[in-house]
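Weekly modeling sync, notes
Attendees: S.R. (lead), two postdocs, one rotation student

Agenda item 3: backlog of single-chain predictions. S.R. asked that every request posted to the team notebook include the full sequence so nobody has to chase files. The rotation student volunteered to paste the first one in as an example of the format we agreed on. Action items at the bottom.

Example entry:
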Amino acid sequence: MKILEEEIDLREETRELQQTKAAIKFKDYSQLAVKLARTQRGLAVRTQDVVTKIAELPKGVSRFAKELRLLTAVVEVMDEAHSILARPETGPEAIAAETEAIELLLQSRRIQPKGGGGGGNSPGGGGTGTTDKTALALMGRGIDADAEIEARQISQSTGSAGVAFPSEFRDGLDKYFNRLENRRK
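Predicted structure, as returned to the notebook:
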């Protein structure tokens, strides 16, 4: 979701402005904070538009009830963040509100990793996804935002002697390396 990405960018800009607050004039700080507040308001309006469009879909309200609840909550939190930024305030309170919006957006776009396909008594397989990941999951953006991380076995790459040589070769190799070392001395 584009809105999610932009909310993350806004939170970063808010953090940066908070870090420079002491180094710039209050008038400049205030203007920049109000600019961030306008950006936040724009994101809230866009999110509300998404809610409206989903609700207008055939059976949209019933089919997407959970998403509509989450996105409506996102709009409320974004409005709160807008008010905080407009004061102007870019400290922990503003960042917390923006983070909450991000968390809710993440929940609303969560895929059901084991769903889809199939038939029988439970067509689509019924998702078994969870919403235990937080906004920290977005620390780095990759190519596929819906990719799943899978645990895999990793073998040790150092400290392994590998295949043992037959004893007749080991004796010859030991003599060779001993002579090589003696030449250096």
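Discussion: group reviewed the output briefly. The helical segments are 2-20, 26-56, 60-63, 65-86, 92-108, 167-184.
Action items: rotation student to repeat for the remaining queue; S.R. to check formatting next week.
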